[in-house]
Design goal:
The chain is built from eleven helices and nine strands. It is α+β, with helices and mostly antiparallel strands. The protein has two domains: 161 residues, Regulatory protein AraC (Jelly Rolls, Sandwich); 119 residues, Orthogonal Bundle (Arc Repressor Mutant, subunit A), CATH 1.10.10. The chain has a six-stranded antiparallel sheet with strand order 1-7-2-5-8-9. β3 and β4 form a beta hairpin. α2 crosses α4 and α3 packs antiparallel against α4. The N and C termini lie far apart (58 Å).
Length: 283
């Protein structure tokens, strides 16, 4: 993976200008402190602390600092992207997302990521961990670096704001929604929003805002809807009794389950099962 030359740390004083250059690999610039003006061809990108600029290969670019600035620069070659995609941590949704991100980069030459709040400590922690692992340079560290690069790219696409087509943003949001849904379904019995925070690395309010935007429901409402949908599927299969289904989808209070199930389907679980059987028989 070439992790020994993956990153560069650059500190610039006010008024510093970098040389014009281009590379056969993409560059990912992160402004850790200060501010930075990045020139890419005829475009000017004003970057503040916490911003990221992802620049495609073969783009002529140079930079200028207005104050004392600290920039972390990552070299992201096709080899690195392929290694990240092949990493055991990369499921189908993540692979699809990275491919969409790379496609967007090729089409637009660069992507300017701006954090929605003041500063993203979590991304900085990921970059710091990546730098530490690069210094080890053994086989285990190579895989860890791939995993960290995967998390960095995923976080940029899902937490940061950037100017891209609505299609790309919609596609990325859909991929994240699919991954969250898959995680909830795989852990339906005991899933909590704290588990999502630990799994995906975002704050609790982010999941509520994201799910509200995607589904019109909060996490609690969405989890209940997923559990009721799963219970309906299990009732159709006729392989478990109702009490077993209630436990399987994560409920302990039978009366509560009956109430919310009846509110959603306008009949009790037993009547629902009977209705499904009769409907299938009639067909």
């Amino acid at each position: 993976m070439g992790i020994e030359s993956l990153f560069h740390l650059n500190r610039y004083t006010a008024g510093t200008k970098t040389d014009r250059h281009k590379h056969d690999y993409a560059e990912l610039l992160y402004v850790s402190d200060g501010s930075f003006i990045q020139y890419i061809g005829d475009d000017v990108v004003n970057m503040r602390k916490g911003d990221v600029c992802f620049i495609d290969s073969e783009c002529m670019c140079w930079g200028e600092s207005d104050d004392d600035t600290f920039v972390i620069r990552l070299e992201v070659s096709d080899e690195i992207i392929n290694a990240v995609i092949s990493n055991a941590m990369a499921d189908k949704q993540t692979v699809d997302y990275i491919k969409e991100l790379v496609k967007a980069l090729k089409n637009s030459r660069y992507i300017h990521f701006g954090y929605k709040d003041d500063y993203d400590n979590e991304l900085k922690d990921m970059l710091t961990a990546l730098i530490s692992e690069c210094g080890v340079a053994d086989m285990a560290s190579a895989y860890i670096c791939q995993g960290l690069m995967l998390r960095i790219l995923w976080r940029l696409g899902t937490v940061y704001e950037y100017a891209q087509s609505r299609y790309i943003r919609k596609k990325i949001n859909w991929l994240l929604h699919q991954e969250i849904t898959d995680f909830i379904e795989d852990n339906m019995k005991d899933v909590t929003i704290d588990m999502l925070v630990e799994r995906f690395g975002y704050q609790e309010d982010y999941f509520n805002r994201f799910l509200k935007a995607q589904t019109g429901m909060t996490f609690t409402e969405y989890l209940q809807d997923c559990r009721l949908n799963k219970s309906a599927i299990l009732l159709k299969e006729d392989s478990m009794d109702v009490d077993e289904i209630i436990k399987e989808v994560g409920y302990r209070n039978k009366g509560y389950f009956y109430r919310i199930f009846t509110e959603k389907y306008n009949m009790t679980p037993a009547k629902f099962r009977k209705y499904i059987k009769e409907k299938e028989f009639t067909i």
